[in-house]
Amino acid sequence: MSNNINEVLEQLLRQSGARHRVLTSNIANVDTPNYKAKDIKFSQVLGNEITLATTNPKHLPAADANAGGEVTGVDTQPWLDKNNVEMDLEVAKMTENAMRQQAEVTLLTMRKTMFRSALRTS
Prior knowledge:
This protein is mostly helical. Helices cover about 50% and strands about 5% of the residues. Helix 1 packs antiparallel against helix 3 (about 85-120). It starts with a helix and ends with a helix.
């Protein structure tokens, strides 16, 4: 990814869309025997682009984010049919992902509005 904030936001939007597709697949397969839930972890999306500095011993360390946003299996206890999809958990993840995606769209829209405004005043 680039250091350009617009490109970072666009990459985050693409990853949010990919996570949405994975989560909807989980929900669609809630009754499929032997289906294993999958997810894309947000911390993996940014890779090394954004690093958090721990300037105080009380700061929490940043999670390891070198995996690149790949689809991973969810390690939860399976049901009797060996399916481990939990509908409540998947809906909560989708809600979280939708809120994150809305924030990303809002930030990208605000940046573009700022640039338009700057061009009009110059």
